[in-house]
Amino acid sequence: MDAPSTLEGHPTRFWHRVGGDRVACDICPRSCRLREGQRGFCFVRANRGGEIVLLSYGRSTGFGIDPIEKKPLHHFLPGTKVLSFGTAGCNLACKFCQNWEISRSRAVDSLTDTVNPDAIALLAQRTNCRSVAFTYNDPVVFHEYAVDTAKACRAFGLHTVAVSAGYQCAEPRAEFYKNMDAANIDLKSFSESFYQRLCGGHLQPVLETLNYIHHETKTWLEITTLLLPGENDSAHELECLTQWIMENLGPDVPLHFSAFHPDWKMLETPATSLTTLLSARRIAKKNGLRHVYLGNVRCPEGSNTYCHQCGQLLIGRDRYTLSEWNWNNPGTCDGCGALCAGVFEANGPQDLRPSSPFE
Fold first, then answer.
1. What is the pTM of this model?
2. pLDDT over 50 (residue 314)
């Protein structure tokens, strides 16, 4: 909790009074109980006048135009551009955070850009982006800003993408994903001890979010696990993690194993080796997952999309850039007719479409 601030804030709905001058925030499982003027763990939700307000509404740390593959999303509009933005603050405290300058920022007062939801949608449209991503920090903590922006984007015919750790309560989660077309959720580990020691949170709410998105919404889902040497990369844990995904979400949810690079409070932890990443991929494939990717490394085997039935190369990638597009009807393998789960545009990237003998 923090000392009182003079900043005004945007009204929110997910809170309740708990007696005296305290109110409890219901946006995430932390349930911060705040006195007048106090901020929550995330630093951007605060008690003002006996109500929880959002201090970062309409205030961004900046914007970037990325390939959608960078989110990472490999089965959602591949080859298209996405406008990415975030605010400040986070409701977890991952000691290995690779975006800690933003996610753990306390500089809400000096956020660089002030921009309303309609302006963000208009910017995405003008820069030929097909979607807008809520990323850099976790959109759970700027829920109202993200939802309002998502609604504005849909009015402009744009898609919406959430990059989140999935640490949410049930009611706001339902409202949030009703407005998201795709999500990449960080499943940081399959160990409750890991979540407590290194993230300051718990595993179960994240598993509930994954189940909810996949089974209760139309949001396209992909998962990322950052592998930390000696922490969450054991064969036993990866067996448990990938078996849980297979049993609860099925074989078609893409899983991204990403390489860790020393950062923030884990500078002494070594970078993840390619050997470890390839081993993780083999375990996931053995347990039935069809689409397993490797991130933060250059590895064609772990970047490309293959038909799960006949093995034909469907989409070639060089890191975040598409190099091959080997199907005439995206989503269906030309070789064997097997379906590939995802959200694909009918024509695909114009410069990578298979050529016709009649053209």
1. 0.94
2. yes
pLDDT digit string (tens) for 31-76? 999 999 999 999 999 999 999 999 999 998 889 999 999 999 999 9
Could you give the domains of the chain? 10-54 (no CATH), 59-303 (3.20.20.70)
pLDDT band with cut points at 50, 70 and 90 for residue 262: confident
Quick check: bond before 72 cis, omega within 30? yes
Looking at this protein, which amino acid is placed at residue 286?
Answer: K
